[in-house]
Amino acid sequence: MIIDRRTFSAGLLAGAATALVAGGAAAAADVVPKAKNVVLVHGLFADGSSWSEVIARLQAEGMNVTSVQNPLDSFEDAVSSVQRVLDRQDGPTVLAGHSFSGMLVTQAGVHPRVSAVVYVAARAPDAGEDYTALAKRFPTPPASAGVVFDGDWGSLTEAAFLQDFANGVPEAKAKVLFAVQEPFNRVLTTAKTTEAAWRSKPSFYAVSKEDRTINPDLERFMAKRMKAKTIELESGHLSLVSHPHDIAGLILEAAGRR
Predict the structure, then answer these.
(1) Residue 124 and residue 222 in contact, taking contact as beta carbons nearer than 8 Å
(2) Which ranges of the chain would DSSP assign to H, the alpha helix?
(3) CA separation for the pair 10, 31 (Å, rounded)
(4) What span, in angstroms and rounded, lies between the C-alpha atoms of 227 and 138?
């Protein structure tokens, strides 16, 4: 087949245009949508007040912040509590979770108002993944031995809370956090997500290098798998308490404010 100069030139232009569009789409995917709202979710052994130091810093930057007081009786109820708060947001929203609540962020983060997801020393399973089996691929962290059950309701002993969950937090502050510890239902230990928000939303992860509740190498594995923007902190599990400036900074970056 003979191709004249005009046809050849048109083909080159079409190919160039296609490449530009594809490149533009790839570039757009790397842009974090600007958000004014932040929804924070606590994990096991804590309540919404664990985010207090981060909340103050985000509010000082003009962000609209809500800390969810999620129930710890069933995975479905906990996810619903997050979804109800997301429903009330006006515009793009960063959804951030600590520890166990990474499960809730992973599930509820597919909500259309969520513009980015942030994991703070948090679980980040794939859809349908057995998180317990995943965690067993890494050495068991010390805090696990401190979980005690009263029937179906579990909590951390004070010793495990202070030494392994809140390591790096001043003892007086850690004892206040221990006083508001909420027991969790055993069924949460076998919960599985059916969604994986990190597969479709910009993702951010704060690894706690001195974590004694979730193995730091497991945190690194999950962060790398989701291709998250990752920071590593010289912190125990409660980096949101011991390093609130860094955590607030990561959330602001996820909100397109940095």
Answers:
(1) yes
(2) 5-29, 52-60, 75-87, 102-108, 131-135, 158-160, 171-179, 216-225, 239-242, 244-254
(3) 32
(4) 20
User: For the whole prediction, is pTM greater than 0.85?
Assistant: yes
Token match 């509590």: residue? Answer: 81
Question: What span, in angstroms and rounded, lies between the C-alpha atoms of 197 and 151?
Answer: 33
Using DSSP bridges, classify how beta strands 229-233 and 114-120 pair: parallel, antiparallel or unpaired: unpaired
Residue position matching structure tokens 């606590």: 42
Q: Could you tell me how far CA 192 lies from the centroid of its own chain? A: 16
- Degrees to nearest 5, angle at CA 227 with 123 and 138: 45
pLDDT digits (tens, 9 = 90+) for 110-163: 999 999 999 999 999 999 999 999 999 999 999 999 999 999 999 999 999 999
Structural domains of the chain sorted by starting position, each given as residue range(s) with its CATH number in brackets: 34-254 (3.40.50.1820)
Distance CA 171, CA 236 (A): 13
Angle subtended by helix axes 244-254 and 52-60, to nearest 10 = 50
Rounded alpha-carbon distances, angstroms, from residue 160 to 115, 146, 179, 213: 36, 5, 14, 10
Q: What is the pLDDT of residues 195-219, one digit of tens each?
A: 999 999 999 999 999 999 999 999 9
pLDDT in tens, 225-258: 999 999 999 999 999 999 999 999 999 999 999 8
